[in-house]
Design brief:
Elements (H helix, E strand, L loop, with lengths): L4 E5 L3 H13 L3 E5 L2 H8 L6 E5 L1 E2 L2 E2 H11 L4 E7 L3 H10 L3 E5 L3 H17 L17 H15 L4 E4 L6 H10 L8 E5 L8 H6 E2 L11 E2 L1 H4 L4 E5 L6 H13 L1 E3 L6 E3 L3 E6 L3 H6 L5 H7 L2 E4 L10 H16 L5 E2 L1 H9 L5 H15 L4 E2 L1 H4 L10 H11 L3 H19 L4 H7 L4 H10 L4
Parallel strand pairs: 1-2, 1-3, 3-6, 6-7, 8-15, 8-16, 9-12, 12-15, 17-18
Antiparallel strand pairs: 4-5, 10-11, 13-14
The structure holds adenosine-5'-triphosphate (ATP) and magnesium ion.
């Protein structure tokens, strides 16, 4: 294999020298220049695999280099060097197509990590989405095809991605695919449900602790950041993170380093951050439940996963795929869906999206008599979208004298219905109702439904 070349662009000779030495020791060839025009001249020769550029340069900005590379040599990976704390520039560079950034003063560890990832990126750039892995995004509608293309592109970048979408729409599938198709694919993918960790344990879960740092810390423990080192940390339900933890998370992301509770040692970590919620994160920011600086940092690129209602014509394909899977697991011939069953599915709104479809199909496959699933076997919840005006008078007569008690009884019914729809799974039931896990747990306690 021919030696790879890294182009270094910085107007300070000391920094150039530090980078040159570190990179040469990794067995790579370096070229160094001190301004944008010299960089572009070199890039035009098409011999550069990786480019590291400072932002402030005598004849322009490092962002100009990023733009030039995006337009003229998109096979070259580019990362920017940013002054400590200049989040905005780092974010701007990532949006412009830089695959990563590195803080000044440059930490040698971080630099090495970045270069390793970048060169893996290069060797993997030819592989298309690997569908042999179990993470698959099925669907033939335009919205899903576009999403798949977007994933292929995002997999190459190291930019943080925020994945939005309704409950059960496939956000985790998207996160796993971004990981599985990028240069970090052989390192761990660590998903964490931010709402499911008790407040008092969040910090230790993320950053780890040393023995004796608090009651119950019986031994040293590594945190999720360290566990995900070299790979991807998926912050699921990120809106559920307590505010004080949001500050600490921001710091870890910006500094690419963590400190275990009770320790003074900074451990540098190389982790790509993906996050998701089924809530509207910008609304959480507006209501001050989510810090805007963290939002800005994790939401560099947003991917919106469409709801099942936005791609109704994918339903038969998804349903048949699920039936095949069930059939092979259960060792039975795959049941088929009758015409009326398909029609019923196509007009059902699926508040729980693909996951709800999976549950419905599995239940129907269990209940159907012969090898055909009918609309009746699906037992779809009745749509209550048409408001019956008489209902309000019913409500009134039932609420007379005790509206609180009556509303509470309605709430209990809804909670029970959600639990039933999600087969007793509390996390999923909470999501279905748009509640945090904590809120949901509180209501279960309140009504003694536990
Ligand atoms: N396009 C798809 N193709 C195949 N399976 C899918 C697709 N989208 C979602 N699924 C399946 O639907 C289920 C729900 O997906 P996933 O867990 O990714 O949803 P989510 O958006 O993370 O949900 P939540 O908001 O509840 O966390 C999973 O079993 C997943 O495999
Ligand atoms: Mg999820």
């Amino acid at each position: 294999m021919t030696q790879k070349t890294v182009l270094i662009i910085d107007d300070e000779p000391d920094i150039r020298e530090l980078l040159e030495i570190t990179i040469s020791r990794m067995g790579l060839h370096t070229e160094s220049v001190g301004c944008v025009s010299d960089a572009i001249a070199l890039l035009q020769q098409n011999t550069i695999q990786l480019c590291l550029t400072d932002i402030k340069l005598p004849d322009g900005s490092g962002l100009d280099v990023v733009h030039h590379i995006q337009q003229h040599c998109s096979e070259t990976a580019v990362a920017v060097l940013t002054a400590y704390g200049s989040t905005e520039l780092a974010v701007e560079a990532l949006k412009a197509g830089a695959f990563d950034f590195i803080n000044k003063p440059v930490s040698i560890d971080q630099l090495r990590n970045l270069i390793k990832t970048a060169l893996q990126l290069e060797s993997s750039s030819a592989t298309a989405i690997d569908s042999s892995r179990n993470t698959r995004l099925l669907g033939e509608t335009d919205v899903i095809s576009r999403l798949r293309q977007q994933i292929t592109k995002l997999a190459r970048s190291q930019a943080p991605v925020y994945i939005s979408g309704e409950s059960g729409s496939g956000k985790e599938v998207v996160a796993r695919m971004i990981h599985a198709n990028g240069p970090r694919r052989n390192a761990p993918f660590v998903p964490v449900n931010c709402g499911a960790i008790p407040d008092e344990l969040v910090e230790s879960e993320f950053f780890g602790h040393v023995k004796g740092s608090f009651t119950g810390a019986y031994g040293d423990k590594e945190g999720l950041f360290e566990a995900a080192n070299g790979g991807t940390l998926f912050l699921d339900e990120v809106a559920d993170l307590p505010l004080n933890m949001q500050v600490k998370l921001l710091r870890a992301i910006q500094e690419k380093a963590v400190r275990r509770i009770g320790s003074n040692e900074e451990i540098s970590v190389d982790v790509r951050i993906l996050s998701a919620t089924h809530r509207d994160l910008s609304r959480e920011v507006a209501s001050e439940h989510f810090r805007s600086d963290l939002f800005y940092r994790i939401n560099v690129i947003e991917v919106a996963v469409p709801s099942l209602r936005q791609r109704v014509s994918d339903i038969p394909l998804l349903a048949n795929f699920m039936l095949e899977k069930i059939a092979s697991e259960w060792g039975i011939p795959a049941p088929r869906l009758s015409e009326d069953a398909l029609n019923a599915l196509s007009s059902y709104p699926f508040p729980g999206n693909v996951r709800e479809l999976e549950n419905i199909i599995e239940r129907a496959a269990t209940l159907c008599d012969d090898e055909t699933i009918t609309a009746k076997d699906l037992s779809l919840p009745a749509s209550n979208s048409s408001v019956n005006p008489d209902k309000h008078t019913d409500h009134l007569s039932a609420a007379i004298g005790d509206v609180e008690g009556y509303l509470a009884s309605i709430e209990q019914n809804i909670i029970n219905a959600a639990l039933k729809a999600q087969q007793g799974n509390k996390t999923e039931s909470a999501k279905l109702l748009g509640l945090t896990f904590r809120q949901f747990r509180y209501k279960l306690k309140k009504y003694n439904l536990d």
